[in-house]
Amino acid sequence: MKRVYTFGNGKAEGRADMKNLLGGKGANLAEMNLIGVPVPPGFTITTEVCTTYTQQGREAVVKEIQGDVEKAIAHIESLTGTKFGDAANPLLVSVRSGARVSMPGMMDTVLNLGMNDEAVEAISKKSGNPRFAWDSYRRFVQMYGDVVLGMKPKTKEDIDPFEEVMDKVKEAKGIKSDTELQVEDLKELVKLFKAAVKENTGKDFPTSPWEQLWGAICAVFDSWMNERAILYRRMNQIPEEWGTAVNVQAMVFGNMGNTSATGVAFTRDAATGEDIFNGEYLINAQGEDVVAGVRTPQQITLEGSRRWAALQGISEEERASKYPSLEESMPECAKDLIETQQKLEDYFKDMQDLEFTIQDGKLWLLQTRNGKRTGAAMVKIAMDMLRAGIIDEKTALKRMEAQKLDELLHPVFDKDAVKRVKVVAKGLPASPGAATGQIVFFADDAEAWAEKRKKVIMVRIETSPEDLRGMNVAQGILTARGGMTSHAAVVARGMGKCCVSGAGEIKVDYKARTVEMGGKLYKEGDWISLNGSTGEVYDGQVPTVDADMSGDFAAIMNLADKYTKVDVRTNADTPRDAAVARKFGAKGIGLCRTEHMFFEGDRIKAMREMILSKDEEGRRHALDKLLPMQRGDFEGIFEAMDGLGVTIRLLDPPLHEFVPHQLATQKELAEEMGMTIEEVKLACDSLAEFNPMLGHRGCRLGCTYPEITEMQARAIIEAALNVKARGIDVHPEIMVPLVGVVEELRMQADVINRVAAQVFEERGDTVAYKVGTMIEVPRAAVTADQIAEVADFFSFGTNDLTQMTFGYSRDDAGKFLKIYKEKGILKTDPFEVLDQKGVGQLVRMGVEKGRSTKPSLKVGICGEHGGEPSSVKFCAKLGMNYVSCSPYRVPIARVAAAQAAIEE
Ligand code: PEP
Ligand code: MG
């Protein structure tokens, strides 16, 4: 088993398609070598070694790969003409993590490894640049101390001991920027940093390069299991077993002076998808400086630089002198970079996210990967590449992260409303969208407020991976520092969250929990709005309007329809929801829950009267009042769905949900019904159940009170005839809930058919209708062959089916599911993502058994899973005719269904 793969000088043992073994970064470093892109030589330790490390620990790993690592270091030595640990000509390396998929800011990096008191002198002499040598040394001690020796602050109250030392030194010297530190200052810093290490860890800073190397390799493996990484994996459903690779590479230095630089770039605009090469760089800086937001990064292209300056309100003179583009400051290198980015995009046929370093006028690539992008950019880039003939239709569809389409469906700010609001600050349009919320400053507050259903905007000086939890629940993120590639910007784009970054003029005071913007002091809880597409920050709340769904979005949807084999319907209870869903491309209603209609206005009174009636006569009296209301509702829905199927489900919830529980409302009801309060109370109490979800609900109501089914069937058929008379093409499908025994369905179908025949007779007209059932009780799935004898269609109610298969109460599972996920007992919440191995097997059985009786049986799903991409694909592969989901998930399901067809 090969565990270490080398690369360098146009050769590589790995390849781009070996991401599972080499991680994304390692695989692409190898491939870049093979296609002639300049990459510093190095090697990759495989992800399998990470698994060994997690299971067996450091000693086992060192024993397993020591020989390979030594050989690989010798390989770098021979290509660079340096020697690891040599006093005269030392090799310095970087050590970086690299999982299969990128996890921005989650894992740790160590640069300049191999540095010690001798090496610094040698490098100082060799480069003729002592400042560079000592700057590299102090960075190394800091990074190694933070990452490998565990000195990185753990909470927001902790101070980084190195930053503390740094601040003291700068203050003593009266300087602001790191670049103003002189050689003597840097020497002093190294000394103070090492003392800080000794004080914090009780040990001397390791001087042996080999000891440093093993420390760093193991730290990368450790970082796979750190809290941030675990959280990121959980949010993105990345399995722990994947592990991370370790990349060790010869250092190239962006901090060697004014002919050196480092930067990051995107081959297209990651926010809008426009085909514009863009990126940021810093002269005389190293790696993390650009993303960390320590200094204001400059733009690579002249055009980008001018646009940036205009956004910041910086004059052309100031821009050109203080923040020149790379095209101006290093024209040759800029030309090389522009050629290289095109080569990489052409080769990988997707938008690339690059990291580069310029060492003394020579360009080196340190990374390339498919760039994270917003939903809008995802759609535009795929369609642009399709039209340019770079990719084919199937590839364009496969590139869709279905969930991300959600970003395109949501409202944007009302253009007119925006004109009237006050712009209080301006930053970079880091991640588009519109966000309105109350200001919070810390991640834990964001979480706590969001839990109380408050909309929050996180305001930070800059963000770090620790803020991820907060960003996840916030409506948007505003930062004072950081460019378009800062942590906040990259992560927000990945999440599809609105973000304005680098709003330099805002003054954040964490202690006072205030932010000063546009001459006003905002406190925690004050409302602001962010426009992630322009970088503007507005005072107060701003109204929004619906998103535009034409253009590339429509094109992708049409492509999806071309390949899909599954219809997407919607779960809608009102004509309004039905209309929204239709706009999103829904091909009918898969679930109309009739009970929601009973809660509105006066209806609940009639409903309560029905429930509390002592006998059938009383119930019929109340049902007569409900009939016209239901009929009106159904007419509205049939009209909105003209020409499409509409599945209406009969009453489902336990009756207890409809009766009043408070004394005041019970009194009111007693008066209305001419009952005593005691009678009402008694009647309400008698409806209480120990396990209402397993109690008197679903078709059990219709079987015990057939008059309810009669009223609903009549309302549906009469409504259908009424709209038919108005020229509407109506296709009613009546669905019986919670069937577990075929006799339940047979009894309900008899009632429905009898009522329908009666109505047809009364009206002298007919309409075609279907009678089907939900499959949501395990017994229904197991006896689906019998149930199919009666049913025209099945619709899997995977909410209840999950509840009953796991035995987890839908209403109470939240409490322990969170812990189950944390402990790894469950990877995902089964109420969100269909449990394919368990519940999914019942679904499979239900489909197969049902169709064994009735091969033409129409089958769909209407549980929440009908809009979750992995579950949609599962249903599509089982050969379902349709999936049904809430209106805003319709486009997501359409794309997921098409992807399932392509993957077949
Ligand atoms: C289901 O159980 O999956 C379903 C769609 O019905 P409800 O959520 O209304 O119980
Ligand atoms: Mg149900």
Automatic annotation (TrEMBL):
Mg(2+) binds at E776, D800. It is an enzyme of class 2 (transferase). Catalyzes the reversible phosphorylation of pyruvate and phosphate. The lineage of its organism: Bacteria, Pseudomonadati, Bacteroidota, Bacteroidia, Bacteroidales. NCBIfam families: pyru_phos_dikin. It catalyses: pyruvate + phosphate + ATP = phosphoenolpyruvate + AMP + diphosphate + H(+). Transmembrane segments: none annotated. The active site is at H487 (tele-phosphohistidine intermediate), C862 (proton donor). InterPro entries: ATP_grasp_subdomain_1, PEP-util_enz_mobile_dom, PEP_util_AS, PEP_util_C, PEP_util_CS, Phosphohistidine_dom_sf, PPDK_AMP/ATP-bd, Pyruvate_phosphate_dikinase. Its EC number is 2.7.9.1. This is Pyruvate, phosphate dikinase. The keyword ATP-binding applies. Residues 454-535 form the PEP-utilising enzyme mobile domain. Belongs to the PEP-utilizing enzyme family. It comes from the Bacteria. Substrate binds at R593, R649, E776, G797, T798, N799, D800. The keyword Nucleotide-binding applies. GO terms for molecular function: ATP binding; kinase activity; metal ion binding; pyruvate, phosphate dikinase activity. Pfam families: PEP-utilizers, PEP-utilizers_C, PPDK_N. Residues 551-900 form the PEP-utilising enzyme C-terminal domain.
